[in-house]
Specification:
Layout (H helix, E strand, L loop, with lengths): L1 E5 L4 H11 L5 E5 L6 H9 L2 E4 L10 H20 L6 E6 L7 H20 L3 E6 L1 E3 L10 H10 L12 E6 H13 L18 E4 H16 L9 H22 L1
Parallel strand pairs: 1-2, 1-3, 3-4, 4-5, 6-7
Antiparallel strand pairs: 7-8
């Protein structure tokens, strides 16, 4: 199976690629902003499945929300149609799709483009509306508050919390990737609203001040050489994520 992954070097893309490399019978066709544009024609002609992960969240200019999140995606779909390729397409959208923000408008437009494409090609349209997602490879000041806190605390930088009691809902990257992989093997009907999300059991809600306190605890214990005794599934996932930022610091120091 040939799987096209746009945005393969991004947070979700990198994790998905690492997971799919381990699956036998999968050939990854990677495409990002640095890939020769001519390869996109070849990839859209050959692919059996598309994960469209290419997107911008905090671009230098607001116009990039539309040009990347909508226009580029429509270009990908147009090529798939040109080659009459009925492959399924999975789009990473957002819980902010449809809001009045420029970002939200670009995401809802991408969803509408995929639904129209699906009707034309009689193909599967798989839309995930993701919430804040954390895990290894997430960039600080870009992907999530977990990345910001992990980066700052691991590097002994100050953490400023403006809304300490604010509740944030999170997904963990491995859970997202596992959910994505299922669609390679099964044709799953979306819920009545038309998009996929992780189940409540894999959605974690925590106050910002409690999140920071946990990460500070992990930092204190690792500085003392003490292995943290995991209390629950969320703690394990958050702890593993924090350790990945410490490992990055060690790796950079050894370069």
């Amino acid at each position: 199976m040939k799987v096209l992954i746009t945005g393969n070097k991004g947070f979700i893309g990198r994790n998905l690629c690492e997971a799919l490399i381990k699956k036998p019978g999968i050939e990854i066709l990677p495409f990002d902003k640095d890939t020769d544009a001519s390869l996109l024609k070849e990839y859209t002609k050959q692919c059996d499945f598309v994960y469209h992960l290419a997107a911008v969240h905090r671009p230098p200019t607001a116009s990039e929300f539309d040009s990347i999140n909508r226009v580029f995606f429509e270009d990908v779909l147009a090529l798939i149609q040109e080659y009459e390729n009925p492959c399924p397409v999975l789009l990473t959208s957002s819980v902010h799709a449809g809001t009045d923000s420029v970002y939200g408008k670009s995401k809802i437009a991408a969803e509408e483009a995929l639904r129209k494409h699906s009707a034309i090609m009689n193909s599967r349209a798989i839309i995930y509306r993701l919430t804040n997602t954390f895990g290894r490879y997430a960039l600080p000041n870009h992907h999530s508050v977990v990345a910001n806190f992990c980066h700052s605390i691991a590097n002994n930088y100050p953490v400023i919390i403006n809304e300490p009691d604010r509740l944030i809902r999170f997904y963990y990257i491995d859970d997202v990737v596992d959910s994505f992989k299922i669609h390679l093997e099964k044709d799953i009907e979306p819920p009545g609203h038309g998009f996929f999300a992780l189940p409540e059991g894999l959605t974690y809600t925590i106050r910002l001040k409690d999140l920071a306190e946990l990460l500070y605890r992990y930092k204190s214990l690792t500085d003392q050489g003490i292995k943290y005794m995991l209390e629950d599934e969320f703690s394990r996932k958050l702890y593993d994520t924090f350790l990945s930022y410490l490992q990055d610091i060690t790796a950079n120091a050894n370069e």
